[in-house]
Amino acid sequence: MVFNKENVDYSLYLVTDSSMLPDGTTLYSQVKAGLENGVTLVQLREKDIETKDFIREAVEVQKLCQSFNVPLIINDRIDVALAIGADGVHVGQDDMPIPMVRKLVGPDMIIGWSVGFRHEVETLAEWGPDMVDYIGVGTIFPTLTKKNPKKAPMGPQGAIEVLNALEDNKAHWCRTVAIGGLHPVNIERVLYQCVSSNGQRALDGISVVSDIMAAPDAAAATKNLRHLLDNPSYKFVNLGLKSETVSSETYREVVGQVTRNRPLVQHMTNKVHQNFGANVTLAVGSSPIMSEVKEEVHELARIPHAALLLNTGSVAPLDVLREAITAYNKEKRPIVFDPVGYSATEARRLLNDTLLSHGQFTCIKGNTSEILSLAKLTTEKMKGVDAFTGQLDKVMVAQATRVVAYTYKTVAVCTGEYDFVADGTFGGRYYLSCGLGISAKDIPCVAIHNGSIPIMGDITASGCSLGSTIACCVGGVAPESNLFDAVVTAVVLYKTAGKLASTRCQGNGSFNVQLLDALYQLFHENCPATWSTSLERLS
Ligand SMILES: Nc1ncnc2c1ncn2[C@@H]1O[C@H](COP(=O)(O)OP(=O)(O)OP(=O)(O)O)[C@@H](O)[C@H]1O
Ligand SMILES: Cc1ncsc1CCO
Ligand SMILES: [Mg+2]
């Protein structure tokens, strides 16, 4: 055995599949191209093959791996691994129990295990450091290589749960590779999002099958994957430089850019909100388009300064919503996500979770019920789309906002008498293995307040329209601007407009009209009448 198990590089783990080789290539030639261009670990996986042929192939691949100083792992066949003296074995949940595998292969061989759930991590932790060396965390996304998947795809949030379980159970020895449906379009996002909540652990690597095995040019494909791992900065949208203080200068700058650039804000939103949202968008100097048409999302996303408001209050078909997320992520244009009624019903939770795992969001905005349940700080069901009505602890709501920002690596907004805005974007940086170092409770968060304005909660879709306003601001600012500043500006101006409107209205009918007028005034005159809205930086 040439390898010290502690020093294995898990960053780019190639799992073979000889059923998908393009014409003119062989398993050997594809693995070789991978090794020449940055694959750090190889797993031989052959499902329908005679033992004699498997051994012959394994010996050939083993020689190849040895010449690159890369460990070879054998899938499932412990006998084959022992027979050829492979560097490790990988087993699934339905294969031989791990303690028996360890007994057979001895202390030095690498053992990998497929893991998808917290309880499996707990078992592994109980066994201690001498059993499992690494886990394949998955399946992350749907994949064609698993014909009959037993588990639903877990998404990045499921992988975060597994990382959290490793931290909670102090399984520090155990390395992790994400597996399942990982491709260049989503790898950066997965690496960026998948950090344990304490900030101490990120994925150690990713595992790919088809991107190399089925590639007509496996060398170029591997180089491309290697590039994503070696340049860990996810430019999902322009993140800009963080300004040290958000001030009325910042607000004026953002408003000036929005009204000059007049962003097109595509709304996929509920029927209740559509008309008011379009008027709010116009009031803040932007152009609304209400469209739920799959065929045009890509074209719209390519328009300079386009932004998407995705509000799940009443919904377009799932495939339309997913295509929209794909389009705006591809064009690196911002998406504001409003998970309306997130915990009202199981169906809503599932729909929102499905969408949240499908892409990267610039901002996630919700009311107190939505944010507390997204942060898993309450299990109480929402009453429809209403905000939480009980007594709320400011510290807890701020923490929930931070957890949501951190988990989804986004700017999170929680509305109410106090609006909280937390920045979990980390400038798009990500790290393999070691995490970000800081946890959710340490990320920047501000509280925005202008006294109690209960009438703001007494008109329908006022939260949804804050979503429109945020989308206008993140869409309208120049590429070098900071998104957190743009979101904070939207929230501050919206609160200011609410305050002005509340002093000018006679009831919730005229409040609607006054809110539009006040927004119009603030954005068009860009000389805010009253900056009584306060912004407090939380420690
Ligand atoms: N008591 C309050 N005092 C001050 N501002 C409030 C108050 N309640 C709500 N707001 C403001 O009203 C807007 C909507 O917040 P709310 O939490 O009611 O959203 P929501 O429940 O998502 O609304 P909807 O679902 O009707 O669109 C936010 O801008 C928020 O700051
Ligand atoms: C009332 C209502 N129902 C679904 S969405 C919506 C708008 C406020 O969220
Ligand atoms: Mg809402």
Which small-molecule species are bound to the chains here?
adenosine-5'-triphosphate, 2-(4-methyl-thiazol-5-yl)-ethanol, magnesium ion
Please describe the biggest sheet, giving its number of strands, its sense, and whether it closes into a barrel: 9 strands, mixed
According to CATH, the fold-level topology of the largest domain is: UDP-N-acetylmuramoyl-L-alanine:D-glutamate ligase
The percent of residues in helical segments reads 40-55%
Mean pLDDT comes to 92
| Number of structural units classed as domains | 2
Number of helices: 19
Strand content bin: 5-15%
Radius of gyration: 26 Å
The secondary-structure class comes to alpha/beta
Strands in their spatial order, largest beta sheet:
10-9-11-12-13-14-15-16-17
CA-CA gap between termini:
51 Å
Low-confidence stretches: none
Shape: elongated
Query: Any guess at the CATH architecture of the largest domain?
Result: 3-Layer(aba) Sandwich
Give the tally of β-strands: 17
In the CATH hierarchy, what is the class of the largest domain? Alpha Beta
Observed structural traits:
alpha/beta, 2 domains, binds magnesium ion, 17 strands, binds 2-(4-methyl-thiazol-5-yl)-ethanol, TIM Barrel, eight-stranded parallel beta barrel, UDP-N-acetylmuramoyl-L-alanine:D-glutamate ligase, 539 residues, single chain, binds adenosine-5'-triphosphate
